[in-house]
């Protein structure tokens, strides 16, 4: 019987795990793009649900608040219950939220469903890179991680396409099948080898590792097990000796290091840059923006799907270009082009609104919005995440990554919540002019703080933020720290979780 049992290569098994994760990321993309098809249908005469204008921005933005809660909940769930159960925890709020929206008889139910979606999205944002990083081989990991941004872009494209053809209730029902499929696929995935080794279940770890990777990477397996054993022995020795340093002094000393606070300031501005570049607002308010820019006669749904298609293609191009171009060159060239596109759109809308410019052929606004979307897909969205994976010091990478995620979620809420009010107060031209000013300010700050990171080691990047190389006594202390089994194990764990910051 066993001779007839079909076996699959490690690559196929790793692809299956990645597919299970990416299907949920597609669902996250659907969550981001859903308001763009929901709100126009709710505004139509005869809609069964009456939505006040003040409530529309809550429908679009409320999920970004509950995402913050998801960021906090993921680490304890992952550590205590395991990666597999954590992925189940992602699927369930997604499913419940979609079905609540399908059966909603009031706007409040839709908002609750969106809150549940945000909770799942927050859980997934932290979990996705951990899952792909721990289940896949280093040889394939980079390729698998690039699917994260593509899956999210496809989710936005999919919900916009389906929502242009079906009602919002049917669209929500279709979107629910992504998380349902991911839930079923997760049943056939074993627990993560990294979590098993952390629980001292070494035999299970070996069996799962060989199932995922085959026998060609046993060195990594044995290194992982031996490091964990050394870590546990060192913990016992520290407890017996009672050696504990003052946590308050250690935290204060860490916060005053340039290599700690400079990358955090840099990435706060990088996250602001990412949110105000236009990708976030276009995902949720694309029909509004297209209507204001191209005029009421334009087919907003066609251009929405067209721009989503362009974003997928541009994201694919970005994977190739970013790996071959200096980070500063890529960021500031696409950033400058993004500012110019915002200013050009603001000028075009203002001139047409004031009657200064009467030429209203659709190719001109279409060109401007496509340029903006190109800069978003190639530079403004992927580059801050790539840079975040390079500038944070290894010793503090976990806390720096958490702060970066928190600021990203906070500014996503600010962007989505304020956009309708800004358009009402100053029109699309005033809103885009404000965004151009914010982009210019954040690019200026990043110009000052961002070193060139491409081709440099983490130690070299850290030294650039510090402004000098390590002194001999600091280097000796760093060597002693890394020689400590406890700190060495924590550093490896932090690197595995945070080095793959990709959207």
TrEMBL record:
Major facilitator superfamily (MFS) profile domain location: 1-454
InterPro entries named in the record: MFS_dom (IPR020846), MFS_sugar_transport-like (IPR005828), MFS_trans_sf (IPR036259), MFS_Trehalose_Transporter (IPR050549), Sugar_transporter_CS (IPR005829)
Transmembrane segments: 16-37, 57-73, 85-104, 143-162, 168-189, 284-307, 328-350, 362-387, 399-420, 432-450
Superkingdom: Eukaryota
Gene Ontology MF: a single term: transmembrane transporter activity
Keywords attached to this entry: Cell membrane, Membrane, Sugar transport, Transmembrane, Transmembrane helix, Transport
UniProt GO cellular component terms: plasma membrane
Subcellular location: Cell membrane
Bilayer topology term: Multi-pass membrane protein
Name of this chain's protein: Facilitated trehalose transporter Tret1-like isoform X1
Originating species: Papilio xuthus
Annotated gene: LOC106118547
